[in-house]
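re: the backbone from monday

yeah here it is again, tokenized this time
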């Protein structure tokens, strides 16, 4: 019931894959990207964050940045660092971190499946972030970053994927950021491609795991091209990497606050939580949140009486937001309030300690990760999670796959 189709991918020359591939544009800032790309002219950061190739005082949203991205993209193609396939293909992308592997099917998915609700979301997007990626896609006339999608496990699909991995040799095999191994296979057998695309006809829905802004941007570009009669057979689809939900791991997405504490702070906390000094830095069960304050770790155990029954309200992140951020500190919009920031779980609780001990932030909350079944339940209910509810690891690298919209 969802459309999954092959496409003539653009990907790195085999010997350059490890040097081209980089972290997603939205998990590093411009300074970090520039440092990571230093002494590496092949880095995809020169396309995905092209401001690093321009004067430092230029805004990353200046029109020159998008123009430079398009120029660098064409330069990579001209030099053979990126190569476009001659026919539509599918790919497999396996990531292995700490002994756990996940394998996604690299394909294109339909903008119509998104607008009709067959590709489901669980987060709101911010217009200014959409505009950035819209301009980037328009300038390059390509989807330069994949959407991270998931689906409920289908045995037949997994069997087809596993057989191909076992019987074929990967075209890329390298280890990169955080010691993650990345392997890629090209599926060039027309019969297997037909079997896989047909198998997804039986999948009722796909779910956005990560990349809501990229999805909205890709869909809006495709719809605009359709409305202006500029569409191609490719622009009705966007680049996606699709993983079975059982293989995915969500990490905690932690919070730090820079606020003044009321004198009765702990008394207010105890209205919704059982509070105990514990020394525990990472929660091991849903319903427990760790608080770091004044060099001490406290465990906050959510009281049963304050746990709602709906898919969104019962999440730990929702309860913390309502019972602490809103009730105690008056933080009503955590997307825009400057008193709060979010720290991905990959940085560990030590980063929370560092930020609070430095005096930059007053207190920190270490969360238990939202679970995949929670994400699917929220999306199926047509509801929206609080911002920054999920942090997926390992990160899909950018630069390994691009999708030409072919409208120029």
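seq for it, each position gets an aa:
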């Amino acid at each position: 019931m969802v459309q999954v189709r092959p496409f003539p991918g653009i990907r790195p020359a085999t010997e350059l894959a490890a040097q081209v591939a980089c972290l997603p544009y939205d998990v590093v800032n411009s300074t970090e990207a520039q440092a990571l790309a230093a002494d590496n002219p092949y880095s995809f950061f020169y396309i995905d964050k092209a401001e690093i190739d321009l004067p430092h005082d230029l805004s990353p949203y200046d029109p020159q940045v998008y123009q430079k991205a398009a120029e660098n993209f064409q330069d990579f193609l001209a030099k053979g660092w990126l190569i476009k396939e001659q026919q539509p293909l599918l790919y497999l992308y396996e990531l292995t971190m700490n002994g756990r592997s996940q394998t996604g099917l690299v394909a294109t998915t339909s903008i119509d499946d998104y607008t009709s609700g067959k590709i489901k979301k669980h987060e709101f997007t911010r217009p200014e972030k959409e505009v950035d990626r819209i301009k980037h896609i328009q300038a390059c006339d390509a989807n330069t970053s994949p959407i991270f999608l998931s689906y409920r496990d289908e045995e037949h699909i997994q069997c087809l994927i596993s057989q191909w991995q076992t019987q074929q040799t990967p075209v890329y095999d390298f280890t990169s950021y955080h010691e993650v191994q990345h392997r890629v296979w090209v599926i060039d057998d027309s019969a297997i491609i037909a079997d896989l695309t047909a198998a997804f006809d039986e999948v009722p829905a796909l779910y956005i795991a990560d990349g809501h802004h990229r999805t909205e941007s890709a869909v809006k570009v495709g719809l605009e091209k359709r409305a202006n009669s500029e569409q191609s057979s490719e622009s009705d689809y966007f680049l996606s990497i699709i993983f079975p939900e059982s293989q995915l791991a969500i990490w905690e997405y932690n919070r730090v606050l820079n606020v003044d504490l009321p004198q009765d702070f702990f008394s207010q906390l105890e209205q919704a939580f059982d509070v105990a000094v514990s020394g525990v830095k990472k929660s091991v069960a849903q319903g427990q949140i760790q608080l770091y304050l004044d060099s001490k770790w406290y465990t906050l155990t959510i009281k049963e009486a304050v746990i709602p029954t709906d898919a969104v309200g019962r999440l730990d992140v929702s309860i913390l937001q309502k019972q602490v951020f809103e009730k105690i500190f008056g933080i009503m919009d955590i997307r825009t309030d400057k008193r709060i920031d979010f720290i991905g779980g990959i940085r560990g609780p030590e980063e929370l300690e560092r930020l609070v001990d430095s005096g930059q932030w007053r207190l920190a909350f270490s969360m238990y990760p939202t679970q995949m079944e929670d994400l699917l339940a929220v999306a199926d209910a047509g509801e929206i999670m609080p911002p920054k509810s999920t942090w997926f690891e390992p990160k899909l690298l950018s630069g390994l796959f691009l999708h030409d919209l072919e409208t120029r």
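The first helix runs from residue 17 to 20. The chain has a mean pLDDT of 96.
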